[in-house]
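In this supplementary section we document a worked example of the pipeline. Step one takes a protein sequence of length 231 as its only input; no multiple sequence alignment statistics are reported here. Step two produces a three-dimensional model, which step three serialises into structure tokens for compact storage. The input and output of this example are shown verbatim.
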Amino acid sequence: MTHVAHPFIQRIGINRDWRSRWFAGDKKKYREYLRTDAAIRKLLNKKLKGMSADMLEIERDEKVLRIIIKTSKPGLVIGRSGEGATNLKKEVDMLLRTLKLSEKPDIKIDIEEVRNPETSASIVGQMVVEGLEKRMPFRRVLKQTVEKVMANRDVKGVRIIVSGRLGGADMARREELKKGRIPLQTLRADIDFARERAVLPYGVIGIKVWIYRGDVFVDRKGAVKNDSKTN
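The serialised model returned by step three reads:
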């Protein structure tokens, strides 16, 4: 049987970059870095729930660990007088102490604003989660979300799948709503993808979101052009 590959893995080096960027000289450091990254992502995903966080990027060298948080609501993450960012830094610092690393790096947290949240699959997925957890009918949530996403001129297609005990039914099923194009086989297509979970009293609803933001072309001088902006 064929399997659907994650849209990111096929496009790394074309129009996507790694979300963890570092180099490990030996196997011991590689294991340590990988374990640390997984623990940081798990912690921050829990702390940033409901704050419209798009993605977490991690960069490191021998002395500095830099965490880049992209969100459409930076004010919620930063907090009043920067208290939110300071608390996040303390939480990460405590986490690194429990992991017993060979070398403890300096932690830096950068918060970047996402200008168009409708073009982010993760934020759109969180919109669906919020609607479902408010007990709204799932068909209405899907329709309203798709219409809101397609209202953005940078978006050329969206596809949302929800699966689970929809509407509290006894048997789990899967529903899908799609509008526009989602060319998964075209590697130059800029496709954002995310998975989210809505926790409801009668079970967990799984959500998958694909957003097509046009094709990315590279000219001879190396400049990147996106046809959704040039057209």
